[in-house]
Amino acid sequence: KLLLTFVVCRLISTVGLAIDNYGAGHPVRRIDQGVFNGELSYDTSDIEKVSVDFGLLNEAKPLGVLHPGSTNDIASLLKTANINGFSVSARGHGHSINGQAHATNGVVIEMSGSKGNQFRSNLGSLPALGYENTFLLGGRNSKSNDSKRIPYVDVWGGELWIDVLKWTLGFGLSPKSWTDYLYLSVGGTLSNAGISGQAFNHGPQISNVFELDVVTGKGELVTCSKKKNSELFNGVLGGLGQFGIITRARIALEPAPQRVRWIRVLYSNFSTFTNDQEYLISLHGKPSSEKFDYVEGFVIVDEGLINNWRSSFFSPKNPVKISSINGSDGGVLYCLEITRNYDDSTANSIDQEIEALLEKLDFIPSSVFTTDLPYVDFLDRVHKAELKLRSKGLWEVPHPWLNLLVPKSRIADFDKGVFKGILGNKTSGPILIYPMNKNKWDDQSSVVTPNEDIFYLVGLLRSALDSGEETQKLDYLKDQNRQILKFCDESGIRVKRYLPGYKTQDEWKAHFGDRWGQFLKRKNEFDPMRILATGQHIFKPSF
Ligand code: FAD
User: Fold this and answer.
1) Which helix (H) or strand (E) holds 153?
2) Which residue, of 42, 110, 147, 506, has the greatest Cβ tally within 10 A?
3) Ligand 1 center from residue 333 Cα (angstroms)
4) How far is CA 422 from its chain centroid?
């Protein structure tokens, strides 16, 4: 039946026919959505490309790959899938870890790099009035005045953030909230949350969207926002691709700064480090001259030089040896990473403002590392590391990443048990740690976060190697992830996984907790046949 579907789709795409019946005894109901503007491909190279992702941990082959030429192509495919019973997954840039964009024996829609020029970005602005109670003006209680307008950009769901940035910079504008790495698609990060060091201030990327066009699992194209079709809008944001495919996103912008002052300081004491991080994120409501624009941090547990792929910053100009830092005791160090954006109009005051902020912090005095660079270079910093790793053959390796949202009240226990315990001086990649303010997250969206006002992202971004030490091998790292989760479970640290890769519905129910009922209701409404994003393993298809 499925094969027939493909034959039919192929016929439609190439000949443009609407077909009532195909083949002896195999009725295929009329498909009248017209022809594909794009291409439904069965090429082995296309199939192989979408069968794996950045994680390189598992493989799942679809039967076909749609390169959409328009939103209608996506709607046609989804309607066909409902009638004939096959799964469909949007694939942004394939940077998931656990096969989340796979569609075993179904069709993968390649959202990024789509053909056709109907996906051009479009700029506009909206009056601020009316958005006082949303996150788009910086929180629920913020005030707007009648004349203020908020600029936005409309982009295709498969657009990469790096391209959105480059395009908007041409108009002196930029999105506000980012991920650390920009070669990710708009639809892909909005299906999770999209977080980085700006999230304490602006919220995650999903808190910075005005409006979406979504093709629901039923194949209906719906425009939605906080005010219109809000159930779909809320559901899709952080919705793990379960309710529809984002074809257009209207993203809030702000005037783009020209340059960034990027500072790293070290701590040997965990609570001093987290106190300072929490102090810095408490400044979110202050004027921009009185806070940093970005607050992140990472943990250094390896001996020797600080040289993982996120810290090239320190070397070769300023190599740092952990043993040379007073008080580190050869153990764990913590690095606070902060930035201030500026331009010509603020260049004169930035040194004093940064000095005043640094004076309030309690880092190791001799450990201040500063650099200054164009805004785009800062935002695109991880890509530089990517190019280096690629040149050494170290990018396309398995990535058993573990990302956790840890409640503030238990972060010290996590430090003791994991950074100073389970990891045992070996990391195999950067370990990010930074706090965020829960009040910048919309509890109507599909994302679940810990039940505290402040929670930390802890990202163990490991790369596995076949050769070398045992502690770098895939099985070792996967086992360590299991130990970390077991430790949290047994110690009652109620973490939520970010970018989770569960395999059973029971695990998903536990993940969503009391939000599961809402998630299920949305699924029944927008994708009743459960054809979408089956690679997430949340629902089994109904065919
Ligand atoms: P894909 O992996 O292609 O898809 C992810 C999920 O979204 C799938 O279920 C897919 O079906 C669905 N989906 C994709 N496009 C659409 C669409 N248009 N409509 C509906 N559903 C869709 N995340 C952060 O938050 N912050 C970071 O700093 C960060 N850094 C990263 C750095 C690297 C090097 C990597 C590999 C990942 C990083 N991530 C980060 C994680 C990343 O945000 C997610 O893995 C994201 O899903 C990747 O986007 P993608 O476009 O590759 O999505």
Assistant:
1) strand 149-156
2) 110
3) 30
4) 26
